[in-house]
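DM from R.C. (forwarded with permission)

"hey, sorry to bug you on a friday — could you get me a structure for this? deadline for the figure draft is monday and I only need the backbone to look sensible"
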Amino acid sequence: MHKKKAILALLYLPFAFSASGCWVAVVGAGAAGTVAYMKGDLEATEPADIDTVYAAAKKTLDELAVTLVQDSKDSLTANIVARDAMNTKITIRLNSVTQQATKLSIRVGVFGNEAASRRIYNGIRDSLK
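My reply, with the result:
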């Protein structure tokens, strides 16, 4: 009887996590905290000022040879929109959390693409080192 209950519990486990209507996948952890992929956006907070993260994001997009469509920045926020060779929209949003921390959000495509978002994020992290 206990074996039956354990099997049923394992079968219902995915439904418990999806009850809120969205899936969250932790894609890595760094010194700044957890990086999460949620609702099509990869979100992280980097321990650097917005100017440094902005420069790293632009460098990464340049290395990926994507076409910049929109690029705006002020002292607290930045938005970068680009298109890749397949005309997929790439959006990077930056928000200054403190003078030495920047929240970043990456979305690739309409519904999100985790693998592509991770590739861009890893490029940004490499540029920040």
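R.C.: lifesaver. The beta strands are 24-30, 33-38, 41-46, 67-73, 77-83, 89-98, 101-108.
me: no worries. The two ends are 55 Å apart (CA to CA).
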